[in-house]
Amino acid sequence: MILDRFLQIETFSLVIIGDFNPVIFQPFWMSSKGLIRDDEAKSAVVDIVHNEILRFELDWLKIEVTRTRCAFTTAKEPYFEPLKDLAIGIFEILKETPITSFGLNHIYDLAFKSDSQYFEIGNKLTPLDLWEEVLKSPRLFQLEIFENERKDGLDGFRRIRIIPSDKSISFGVAVNINNHFNLKKLDFTTHLEENWNNSFIQAKCIVENMLNKIVI
Q1: How confident is the model over 89-111, as a mean pLDDT?
Q2: To the nearest whole percent, how much of the chain has pLDDT over 70?
Q3: CA–CA distance, 142 with 118 (Å, rounded to integer)
Q4: Contact 35, 44 (CB under 8 A)
């Protein structure tokens, strides 16, 4: 796979939109329900606990909950599945929580070989010579592609954002694929389980397809 040649960091984030009570989601509540270990709850680094926002970190996971948004994030690939299991466990307990949509966010931080290759990536995604008459040394800073109607027929959309990597990576580019699902008939946990594997497969196919077409 061409992706393996360039991939430096793979990050995954599950973002859930609904109506939440942030203070419920504390580490010791999770351990009391058997969702995480007691030692994980004790060692959790809690940033803020408030009626409007909760934010803390475990060794392998960042969690942030506001009144309308719940996000689970990890950059440790072996913990992608445990992240899903934790989210399902939480919302099987909190069954009455209103959830309207969720997003599976796949972020690939890629490293290219040189400044010239880094430039050519942007130049092939959007020809920069279109701007040379009015700009000096134009460069692509950010590109977003939006799939207005999903190819798979599901209710939702996909958004691809390509930006410079914010990690310490030479000639780094981040590709963020937001796989968004609206919820109507199916409940959150069912919909998450049904679309989990395909989301990872499709996200990697998108990046593979892009790299195959633009890499020198």
Answers
A1: 97
A2: 100
A3: 13
A4: no
Task: Decide if pLDDT at 214 tops 80.
Answer: yes
Identify the CA nearest to 199 among candidates 83, 61, 45: 83
Would you say residue 148 has pLDDT above 90?
Answer: no
191 to each of 84, 93, 99, 106, 178, how far by Cα in Å? Answer: 12, 16, 12, 17, 16
pLDDT, average across residues 125-150: 91
Which of these, 3, 10, 216, 4, lies nearest to 114 by C-alpha position?
216
Residues 105 and 62: their CA atoms lie apart, in Å, by 14
Contact between 35 and 90 under an 8 Å Cβ cutoff? The reply is yes
pLDDT at 216: 63
Query: How high is the mean pLDDT of the chain?
Result: 95
**Assigned domain for 83 exists:** no
Who contacts 167 (Cβ-Cβ below 8 Å, separation ≥6)? 8, 9, 109, 174
Q: Which residue range(s) make up the domain with 172?
A: 3-13+104-214
| pLDDT at residue 153, rounded to an integer | 83
108 lies in some domain: yes
- Whether 48 is covered by a domain: the verdict is no
Cα dihedral across residues 180, 185, 189, 190: positive or negative? negative
Beta bridge partners of 158: 147, 179
Give the total number of structural domains in the chain: 1
